[in-house]
Amino acid sequence: AEAEVPEGQVALSDSFQFFFYSRVAFCATFACLFMCNARLFAQLQALLLGTVPLRFILLSLLSEGLTILGFYLASIAYSLFYQAAIVHAAEASMSQLLNLLVAFCLQHLCSIGRESAAKGVKTKLVSFVLVTGGLFLCGEDGQGVRRR
Q1: pLDDT one digit per residue (tens) for the chain, 148 residues
Q2: How far apart, in whole angstroms, are the C-alpha atoms of residue 96 and residue 144?
Q3: Least crowded by CB within 10 Å, which of 20, 72, 81, 96?
Q4: pTM tops 0.85, yes or no
Q5: Are 86 and 138 in contact (CB under 8 A)?
Q6: Interacting residues of 49 by C-beta distance below 8 A, sequence separation 6+
Q7: CA-CA distances (angstroms) from residue 139 to 86, 92, 130, 144?
Q8: Beta strands, E only, 13-145
Q9: How far apart are CA 22 and CA 25, in angstroms?
């Protein structure tokens, strides 16, 4: 039986708990790495002293934020869907498409990155649509109800 949650409070889901503790462990691991490795520590100091341009820091923060959001959403998808292989295929397809869109935008709007990294938009978009369609078909039982 589940523990009762007092009125006005929300219980933390298993997915969120895993997400939270894995992020705490991730940060602790990297803090130890940066403190124990002199070369990494010097790079951290250079970052904190402002020798790295702000646009690279902001792009890195945006990238990490999107990665964390994707990790959280993927952990929810894996816990809700009964076929992990299908979820993995959809996750890989979405990741490939989003990486391509980011590379395309950075190349054409900011002139950052290789031109070759921003090619193949149509092919990867079609791949994304097909995999997503397959995920939808595998999740439906013909009556509009998702199976678990």
Answers
A1: 455 655 544 455 666 787 788 889 988 998 999 899 999 999 888 888 888 888 888 888 888 888 888 777 777 777 777 777 777 877 787 777 777 777 888 877 877 777 776 677 777 778 778 877 877 777 665 544 444 4
A2: 29
A3: 20
A4: no
A5: yes
A6: none
A7: 9, 18, 14, 9
A8: none
A9: 5
